[in-house]
Amino acid sequence: MLYQKIPTLKPLHSRTVNSQCGPCTELQFRILAEQMPDIVICMNANARFSYANSRIYELTGHRADEFVGKTCHEVGLSEGFSLLWAEIARDTFAKPRGVDREAQFEFKGRTRVLHIRTVCDKLSTGEPRLIATVRDITALRRDERRINDLVQRLTHHLNNTPLAVMEWNSAGACLMWNDEADAMLGWTWRDVKLGRVECLELIHPEDRPDFQILLERLQRGQVASHFVKCRTLHRDGSLIFCECHLSALLDADGQASSILWMANNVTDRVLAEQEMQQLTTGLADRVHERTAELELANEELQREILARKCLEAELISISEREHRRVGHDLHDGVCQELSGVRYSLEAMSKMRRKGTVLREQLDNLSGALERAVHHIRLLSRGLAPLELEDGNLVVALEELAANTSALFHVKCTVKCRGRAQRLGMEKAINLFRITQEAIQNAIKHGDATHIRVDLDLLEGTLTITDNGNGIKDDAPAPVRGNGMGLKIMQHRADTLQGTVAIERIPTGGVRVNCKFPK
Questions:
Q1: What are the backbone angles phi and psi of residue 491, rounded to the nearest 5°?
Q2: Which end of the chain is less congested by CB atoms within 10 angstroms, N or C?
Q3: Helices (H), 330-392
Q4: How far apart are CA 338 and CA 98, in angstroms?
């Protein structure tokens, strides 16, 4: 605890001779007493006041002249205060060196702590008297309690903080060493006080030069505080990774009177980070290797996909050429041959008389051949529409719808938006074949009686809707849309950089949706 030193009063004698000023008179004593910051009082052996300076009013609320010739009790002060002064007077006259005492009393509703010192003196008449100084140290004791409380709290926090806290003065002596410093570094406060370890000896040899430079800068006041990461050594020689904050307490000359060092042990974190870095590096290498493998596999897959697409495109191209060849062969070969046979039958029929059985048979055969030629021509038109060569998809679809109605006796209609738009031959052929495949599926698998083709050249959509039986879960793959027909349709859509999808209609039937770039 901190205390303010109060000088001891020497005995005052009225006849004491000063070499320069001569004897101290009673008047001079009272003038000096009035100038003092403390309360000054004089008493006789019965504890009656013979004098009190004006400072007594600040403590008791009574004027100084009210005390003259009276005891404390007669003035109106508490009985305890009166008994205290009676005891002090008795002890003072019994002890030549006087009394030095501290007491606590209530004055004006407030607790006051008083420091009382007395000496024994003699008047010119030879009568002994007591001279006392009374100092109000209430604020001093309150401040001491506060300081003591702060010290205890600070000590508690320092000993319970997870940081090692050390303080070193400019001469290298340790002023503070908390419990965490013991646990972290293995050295005790006693070891440090006895000089068994110095500040720099706690630092790893490789980090000491930089740490020494930092300490010198702090000691010269060049920096007030600094944060640094360094390696320290345990008493057993093991390595500790620390995060340290150093701050300097500067004196009036700007030099460090002491340096406070707070260290946080981050060894576990550093080791974990190093392990994580190793794992990350290994993982990165593995990812790099795996990525390279995947890139090679992806390149191989892309080559395979490209080869497959080329093969599919070649197959479709071959199929398209075969469609054209078969269509042309049917139209130019089979149709011509059948037409020649028909014309021969008609000639033979004309040579026979009407009404004969042979002529009727020849006429029937001629009619049958005429219908066969018509159907074959329709089929050849479907296999190789001439309009597609000019990109006229709308006319080709309308002819496809008409031929479908004629061949399969179903209602097939075409509705087009953006009729004036012209397409390239490749796009027109692919859209035509998608429509043709969807119509064949609707007739073959769905038993549809009505098929509607909606072409929107402005939006880039093609929709084929039928009123057939729809798609059942137990239907074969071609019916569910997993057969070769759908794959060819999807490939044709991919060729156009578009998409194709098949969906069920809740009321029955199937809708094929194809989207393609405008």
A1: -65, -40
A2: N
A3: 335-350, 357-383
A4: 158
- From the CB of residue 81, how many other CB atoms can be counted at a distance below 10 Å? 18
CA distance 215 to 10: 50
Report pLDDT for 92: 92
3-state secondary structure of 151: helix
Cα distance between residue 279 and residue 458, in whole Å: 57
Q: Which neighbouring-strand residues pair with 514?
A: 462, 500
387-515 matches 17-143 in CATH topology:
no
- Mean of pLDDT over the chain: 83
The superfamily (CATH) of domain 387-515 is Histidine kinase-like ATPase, C-terminal domain (3.30.565.10)
Nearest to 219 by CA among 171, 255, 176: 255
Q: How far apart are CA 373 and CA 102, in angstroms?
A: 140
Chain CA centroid to CA 24, Å: 83
Strands 450-456 and 411-417: parallel
Q: What architecture (CATH level 2) is domain 17-143?
A: 2-Layer Sandwich (3.30)
Instruction: Report the Cα 517 to chain-centroid distance in Å.
Output: 44
Strand segments, DSSP code E, in 44-99 are 49-52
Query: pTM score, two decimals?
Result: 0.44
Please write the tens of the pLDDT for every residue from 174-225: 999 999 999 999 999 999 988 889 999 999 999 999 999 999 999 999 999 9
- By the 10 Å C-beta count (0-12 exposed, 13-18 middle, 19+ buried), 27 is classed as exposed
The residues near 338 (Cβ < 8 Å, ≥ 6 apart) are 369, 372, 373, 376
Tokens standing for residue 68: 């003259």
